[in-house]
Design goal:
single chain, 450 residues, alpha+beta, Rossmann fold, Dna Ligase, domain 1, eight-stranded antiparallel beta sheet, five-stranded parallel beta sheet, globular, binds ligand MV4
Length: 450
């Protein structure tokens, strides 16, 4: 049985995991870098252990040190959070070798789903719709040209080891195939040490819709409906909402069932996400990737379902069965999350680390703030810039939007620039309010102020 969890992460997700663990009566050990000694998570954990200097490669990514820290503190489980080691199958393997429970799916599943081309092939075999393209990797120009001939332009070349945008090339003409194929493979080799690429038909301006999954170690898989994550900038999500404002109930149920099927077919246990592209013209959806971790935007799913995803992750890792069934789950109301980043939206979202001299956070009905900061806290410059997530729940989308506007007005942060002004602008935007926004939304409002 799990009794002490080592948290191999930082910031708001470390705080979130500590909260869930405490409510389950479990002890927490925070593994932190030298830069995070004074973090909120360090104050809230039962114990702390320093795992190295500020750079992540020498601390949060240095998994041998983290495993030593777990053994030294007699921790019997490790929660990896998101980012860092969360989707590192070697780390999951190393935990198992040391008899430490990795709070996440099996190492083999992390590995298979981390190979985006293989993941596609695997789920396609069980009847999940995928974007037309190559079956598996493309290892020659000739093969690339064959696929392009079959699916037609435009196409997108993606890195098998990728996800999140690196090593991607959009190709519109035959004469550009060779150059793009070579440069995508080169970039993939540089970024991931793996040059394999695959090809898909390019879907212009889709919605990014993802379905939350929970699976246990007894073969049960459930879905917790979808999130609309189309408001992104350079593959960083900025605003997410659940449910999607433009997906009808029939499509919702179909997507959920297909996502469950995809997860079941790969033997998934723990919390996970099935990502789809949704074409708003044809109303077709296509599987693109599976994420084998808890995600930043998980709270909006918690708000509309009443399910504590982190508690279930921990309980599932401990061998518990899911204690509810699909037909017990329903969507109640509407939730929106705005990511508050220490960035200046007026200066191309440049990082704006520094000391938070004053902080007043919104409150009242339907407001949740997941944050790793407090007044007087200095944001270290070594990590990503998200400092808080503002999550609101409303009885319907309109109430959620009105509540988000009100909460953004209450939010007061002095000392750093934040994305709050950007969020205020979006909450008033006509396209956002219509729900018809797609992944090109942020680019559109930045260029012409739609
Ligand atoms: C695509 C696509 C259009 N067609 N695949 C970007 C990150 C990676 N996870 C998948 N991505 C895309 N794949 C096909 N076949 C467009 C994107 C894409 C995108 C997807 C979701 C959210 C934002 C995006 C921004 C640009 C491109």
């Amino acid at each position: 049985m799990i009794s002490r969890i080592l948290i191999a992460n930082r910031g708001e997700i470390a705080v979130r995991i500590i909260r869930a663990a405490k409510e389950l009566g479990l002890k927490t050990v925070l593994a932190h870098s030298k830069a995070d000694r004074d973090s909120l998570a360090a104050k809230l954990a039962d114990e702390t252990v320093c795992i190295g200097p500020p750079p992540a490669v020498e601390s949060y990514l240095f998994y041998q040190n983290i495993i030593s820290a777990a053994l030294a503190t007699k921790s019997d489980a490790i929660h990896p959070g998101y980012g860092f080691l969360a989707e590192n199958w070697q780390f999951a393997d190393a935990c198992r070798a040391m008899k430490i429970r990795f709070i996440g799916p099996k190492s083999s599943v992390i590995r298979n789903m981390g190979d985006k081309s293989k993941a596609k092939t695997l789920v396609k075999e069980s009847g999940v719709p995928v974007v037309p393209g190559s079956d598996g990797e493309i290892d020659s120009l000739q093969k690339a040209l064959e696929v392009v001939e079959r699916v037609g332009f435009p196409v997108i070349i993606k890195a098998s080891a990728g996800g999140g945008g690196k090593g991607m090339r959009i190709v519109c003409e035959k004469k550009d195939v060779e150059k793009s194929f070579n440069s995508a493979a080169y970039e993939a080799q540089q970024a991931f040490g793996d040059s394999r690429v695959y090809i898909e038909k390019y879907i212009a301006a889709p919605k990014h819709i993802e379905v939350q999954i929970l699976g246990d170690k007894h073969g049960n898989v459930l879905h917790l409906f979808e999130r609309d994550c189309s408001i992104q900038r350079r593959h960083q999500k900025l605003i997410e909402e659940a449910p999607s404002p433009i997906i009808d109930n029939e499509t919702r149920m179909k997507m959920g069932e297909i996502a469950s099927k995809a997860a079941q077919s790969v033997g998934y246990d723990s919390a996970g996400t099935i990502e789809f592209l949704y074409d708003i013209e044809t109303r077709q959806f296509y599987f693109i990737e599976m994420n084998t971790r808890i995600q930043v935007e998980h709270p909006i799913t918690e708000c509309i379902t009443g399910i504590d995803l982190i508690k279930y992750q921990i309980r599932i890792a401990d061998g518990d069965k899911l204690d509810f069934s699909q037909d017990k789950l329903k969507i109640t109301g509407h939730a929106i999350e705005c990511r508050i980043n220490a960035e200046d939206p007026e200066k191309e979202f440049n990082p704006s680390p520094g000391k938070i001299s004053q902080l007043i956070v919104p409150g009242g009905p339907g407001i949740r703030i997941d944050s790793g900061v407090y007044p007087g806290y200095s944001i270290p410059p070594f990590y990503d810039s998200m400092v808080a997530k503002l999550i609101v729940w409303g009885a319907d989308r309109r109430e959620a939007v009105d509540r988000m506007k009100r909460a953004l007005d209450e939010f007061y942060i002095e000392g750093i620039k934040t994305t709050i002004p950007f969020h205020k602008e979006v909450m008033r935007n006509r396209i956002f309010l219509s729900g018809q926004y797609t992944t090109d939304f942020v680019g559109k409002i930045q260029n012409q102020g739609v």
